[in-house]
What we know:
The chain is an alpha/beta fold. A hairpin with a 2-residue loop joins strand 54 and strand 55. The radius of gyration is 38 Å and the shape is globular. Helices cover 38% and strands 18% of the residues. Helix 16 runs parallel beside helix 17 and helix 43 (1258-1264) crosses helix 44. The chain contains 54 helices and 61 strands. The strands form 14 sheets. The protein has an 8-stranded parallel β-sheet with strand order 48-47-46-45-44-43-42-49. It has a 7-stranded mixed β-sheet with strand order 1-2-9-6-5-3-4, with helices on both faces.
Amino acid sequence: MSGSSSASEPTRVSILGKESIIIDYGLWKNFVVPDLLENVSSGTYILITDTNIGALYTPTFEAAFNEHTSKLDNAPRLLTYQVAPGESSKSRSTKAAVEDWMLSQGVTRDSVVIALGGGVIGDMIGFVAATYMRGIRFVQVPTTLLAMVDSSIGGKTAIDTPLGKNLVGAFWQPQRIYIDLQFLETLPKREVINGMAEVVKTAAFWDEAEFATLEENADLIMKVLDDKTKKGEGRFTEIAHILKRIVLGSARIKAEVVSADEREGGLRNILNFGHSIGHAIEAILTPQILHGECVAIGMVKEAELARHLGVLAPGAVARLSKCISSYGLPTSLEDKVVRRRTANKHCPVDRLISIMAVDKKNAGGQKKIVLLSAIGKTYEPKASTVADKDIRIILSPSVLVHPGVDSSLNVSCKPPGSKSISNRVLLLAALGSGPCRITNLLHSDDTQVMLTAINKLGGATYSWEDEGRVLVLNGNGGELKASADELYLGNAGTASRFLTTAVTLAKPSSVNHTVLTGNARMQERPQGPLVDALRSNGVEIEYIGKPGSRSLPLRIAAAGGFEGGVIELTAKVSSQYVSSILMCAPYAKNPVTLRLVGDKVISQPYIDMTIAMMAQFGVQVERSSTEPNVYHVPRKAYTNPAEYEVESDASSATYPLAMAAISGTTCTVPNIGSSSLQGDARFAVEVLRPMGCKVEQTATSTTVTGPPVGELKPLPEVDMETMTDAFLTASVLAAVAKPNADGATTRILGIANQRVKECNRIKAMKDELAKFGVTCRELDDGIEIDGRGFDLQEAKDGVHCYDDHRVAMSFSVLSTMAPHPSLILERECVGKTWPGWWDQLSLLFKVKLEGVEGASSHTAGHSVSSSNQKSIFIIGMRGAGKTTTGGWASRLLSWPLIDLDTELERTAGMTIPDIIKEKGWDGFRELELALLKTVMKEKPTGYIFATGGGIVETTEARNILTSYHKNGGNVLLVTRDINLVMDFLQVDKTRPAYVEDMMGVWLRRKPWYEECSNFHYHSQTVESMDGARAKNTIEDFGSFLRLLTNRECAMERMRRKKESFFVSLTLPTVAPFLSRLNEISFGVDVIEFRADLLQDPSTSDGRPSPEFLVEQLAALRSGSSLPVIFTIRTKSQSGRFPDGADEEAINLYRVALRMGCDFVDVELTSSQELKDFVISHKRNSKIIASHHDPAGKLSWATGGSAWMPHYNAALEYGDIIKIVGTAKSLEDNFALAEFKAWAAKTHPEIPLIALNMGEHGKLSRITNRFMTPVSSPALPVVAAPGQLSAADIRRGLSLIGEIEPKKFYLFGSPISQSRSPALHNALFAQSGLPHEYGLFETTVAKDIEKIIRAPNFGGGSVTIPLKLDVMELLDHVDPAAKIIGAVNTIVPTQVGGKTILTGYNTDWQGMTIALQFAGAENNNGVLKEAAMVIGGGGTARAAIYALHKMGYSPIYLVGRNTTKLSALAGSFDERFNIEVLSDTEQVSKLSPDRHPVVAIGTIPGDSPIDPAMRETLCGLFEAGNNTRDIPGPADKSKVLLEMAYKPRITSLMQLADNSGWKTVPGLEALVGQGVHQVSNLLTMCMRHVC
């Protein structure tokens, strides 16, 4: 294969009468040049390729060309030219560049162009040749499999346009097509299988025998492609002959078709099988999904369309899909790899159909699609006209079923083969020896899974005959081998049970075990009893899923057969366990006696079916005559029968029979009767006949005629234990049963096992029937349905099918008689057993169907779940702050907080010390565990639970908590400085003292706490902080909690802003810079935390430990409440973290994700292990997938094609993509801008940070707009070369007209002495904003109307006397301002192109800041504390609002005029809980826990206090002059905020101070009010308001 061309002549294929297609190995090196010189002679040859291919293959050609022409007298010249790789080069601009270059080189009409490359080069350069000087000769040298078998053959040339692929081009036949198969050796695996899509396509529409060969060779080809030990030359030696046959076969077919129809008049259409839908998908998903991958999905969809139209058998669709997937190609848009590579990008059905309208095959408005009639045949020798409505059904995820069935119908319906029998016959024939011709096999997901698994285990080989209607399975006599690949079983429950035992028969291969796994639901379905039985019989089986799992995935040792002898098995959950062991028992090491133990055996008919089928394969199972439920199985090999017909599925047959029953029509199922092996065959006789149907049943057929419409009878009681799967069909019929003398209720029993099927089917039927207004009641082993005739409601939200085929088909029957059309969601789930069900409903029963897309299930970017309403459990050591943080959480979420220790004392009726004294520690732990289970079950949503510190001491509690957070719940670990916790425990007397070393307890519990939790909050000691840091900490906890519950997304906040910035902290440790954090982060939106730059004094190399990182992140958050990006850069990534230290890096990322960092930055060059960890543990954090090119190796030219692979790789896991190049000239920024525009158009849901480093790259930083990295003058170093500050960028945006200068004002009178202009204008200058703040003095609100409505109005501050009057000039007033009755800030926003003026009041926010800074925010929200407002003027309203927002209750009003105060209190709603205190008697009656701890004074400061009021105040200030009864330091002060700011110390302040209160002068509130006002205005003027 390698080295040179074959000794014999290469193979030639004729096209259009010329043998111009030449195929062999080694042509490029030894054959092309002499053949060109002799047969396609010219004075000039122009070799055009791309920069990737050119480096590999141009030198070889040049050397051969020089060697052959050096001896010629008039030697021709060779010119070479290279374009950028990728689809973006297939454009008008690239074509023009090539043509201009050719003209500059003097290329004339006698020249020959050589197109070396894949489809992009061949199509585009072929079009150049077709139009250059009205056409010059060219030759194709395809280098990809896709180009070899498709695009290079036939003379189609084209370029892409923005409206679609290949829309501008020409037919221009190449003189030669040199297909050198040696090029394939350098292709990546993905490119090879991309080409295999076209190979499969060609065989699928033309040659069934070739298709069968592709099926046979799939495993070998994929094995060679997966072999990483062989690279380059000689890589494909093992399959060289297969590859040549594949390429040659495809080339011959295409040549034959093109020769018959060169200009695509009809026949040539068929080459586009899969392309009509595939091209539409490609238009949306390119370049992330390749052409062949899109065509693969398109083929499956177009085959399903042919099946839907009744021209293609269901088995052919399944066979095609299986062949495509066997080459690693996707068959659905829901394919996991497709979803990952496209970041869950959605393909809207309407858009797909719209794109298909531009297809070249179409005639006018009619869409034409190639329809298969069988594998290897098309329905017509051309594309067929298909209606949009049929296309829409196939493409839509949901289907709308219209009511109405023709009452005259009399149909015969043959359902697919039984799933149960199909799965059994596949396993039995594989274990047997020799060929077995199987007919009527169910072609479904389940049987495809079984067939694939058997094949991977080496159990059998197989082929198809009679256009795919017959499976010829060659059994290998039970000689199974362990599979190195995981056997992924999807949602195939039957296959999972049968294969669990079958895999134990395997012998070791390159591995000594096999892993069985499946989808999420399969990882919940029980396997325990079967695994227990096999383990007890000597087989090593390991559960490798989540802790405590008794389901898949399983790791099963290659035992070469289980021991045999006596095996005991519990069979009360599933009869499939029994059948699994029975079928494999003949290959055990000893004869088997299977004893079924426990309760009543479930689904005995399925066991009987298994025994009957084993007899058909030559093994007789003896049922014990002396013991019940005991079976004896001999040790004997199966003998395969020559032929085996699979009986139709009796469960599936219930749906067409139910159609007859519900509609009063007649339906015959021709191959299921009284002699059936299946229990469900009794459905017609035992269920439909008693419901009023006429049933005629022979040994092999069943006919049902329904009663007149509306006359179905309810069944008082029916035991369906022998046909459990059919209970869903019975349920929907019972729903429309007509009430009679016996009532309206149908009771179905014996179906307990239906709770553990694809879903809990009993609950599913109850919930979904309720949507139609039908009442159901769940029973232990059944369901009751109250029939209501056809008096059904409309199921407005559609029927949810739980990915369960039987739910979908049952409700489709009910929908045909509902009063309104019914939407069935998850249309495709019927593929499990009857992929063509919807086709039958439409074709046979004439039911009108519509494809419906409904609400997209795909969110922007990588999927985001809705807010998490599950209850939160808080764990941690006693004294760590669980109650405090729980209180904050309770107040922020408005969820009740339950302290489980307190709740335990309440329910037990004694204190915890007494419980321990009476029951001991073990007894206490048992009660604690029982309570945990109870609240988890009874209060699953909307609660905060603070647990006891020792909750993690028992294994069961740890398992419960771990399972809770792994299944979507949140368990929050709260910690603080462990030395402070130890100090607290020394003095706390509310709990029994530890009987062991307290630090030892912590060290023992620490790993348990981490195991049991998924989030971690390290609390700073708020009480010891200054007010600013305390406020930041509480605000940060709010942000942390909103991320934990997914109530807020920092990324979406950034996206709503017109500009956003982040500053990178280049600090060795945070603490020394805490006081400067506000300065460092001024004007930015996010802080990047560079963990690789930290210096940990406790480690030898300064590398941060996880413990050090926890402290640093907590410190950062105490100093700033901005969102955080967590970043680690290794040395090779221009950082300081060691390369290759993945384990240490993962430990740090674990901390960052658990502590709720809003963003985590992960470089593309990071190891796959690290990326996989972050992806699987990201929770609600957003991943920034980044790539930096500091050396400037990547160019932004030609549409950024050099960056495309990095962008695509980032798209696979990034919620945000960050790509940073290096600009060498100003023009590099313009090219980058083009790439950004392309990305914004193709993936608008994935934000992109794209910029250039270096001096020339500064312009790209100015124009980036989204989360631009900036520097700060307050930082010691700049994070990257060329970085600008946020202010610099805003100045730049102003200079280029992107920030329009605005006018801001202070309105009111008198204001001439105001410092507001100086303050605001200084802030504008510091922020880099071009705005101006001035004064407008007036006492008349109407005077300012023209100003505030002017286009350049940026915002305004309002003071007396306009605060009330200005409201009528505004479009909207903030709720706080409405309640307070005053506006002091006006902010304009743009909504739908219109300016909306909104009024705010920041007075109350100023009060809040002043109180928080004084420590008043430290009440934990658990104990409601009282506050008071002194005075009843205008300011009092803002004071009441501020105290209410801070969580204080009740709020007392104290003043001179009780009537006025009562009116004020009455103007607020009762939530504010306001009480008026008028005298000392009322004060004396207040209980200690109702004494005020915070007060706001709003009376004049320069007047004496009224004597009576003074006496009341003295009583309140002195009342219970005790320690505040809340957690925290004993010396915590009570706080008075005095709103009067003259004189500096007022009489009220003096009064409060005399009683030990802390007093805050009014100027601090004024400053706070100004901060909020400036913040509102800056927010707007920085364009941060959405």
